[in-house]
């Protein structure tokens, strides 16, 4: 997607549906970090196709592994910042790993739905997810983001009431 923030919509919804199973900060980072390479292609320093090796399930799995490793190795001070956006104060390794994988793979699925140059199952050719319906996919991303924000807001409100009781 040329506008990376659209990837945050499905990430928010996924986290809202499974907040204890998917770590929100890790999920959000993993859902957009893949576009760093695409931005480097679009804006100059890298050559090649915009949707390259990271926009495959294999490449996204490597990215997810790196994101999860980075999230799990954050110093306590930085980890405390991430805790502020988590609906639940404690998060385990499995939730961080699952969040990273869900974020990275959702990125591949969204890009595969829109772009002819995405080969999600590389080294196999083809893209079975291509729908080529930009308005539909962007609209679904916005709707998912709104629904996810409502779910997370309700969870935060419940958590705040529990903390003050």
Automatic annotation (TrEMBL):
Sequence intervals crossing the membrane: 54-74, 94-115, 135-157
Superkingdom in the source lineage: Archaea
Key words of the record: Membrane, Transmembrane, Transmembrane helix
Entry protein name: Membrane-bound metal-dependent hydrolase
Organism name: Halosimplex carlsbadense 2-9-1
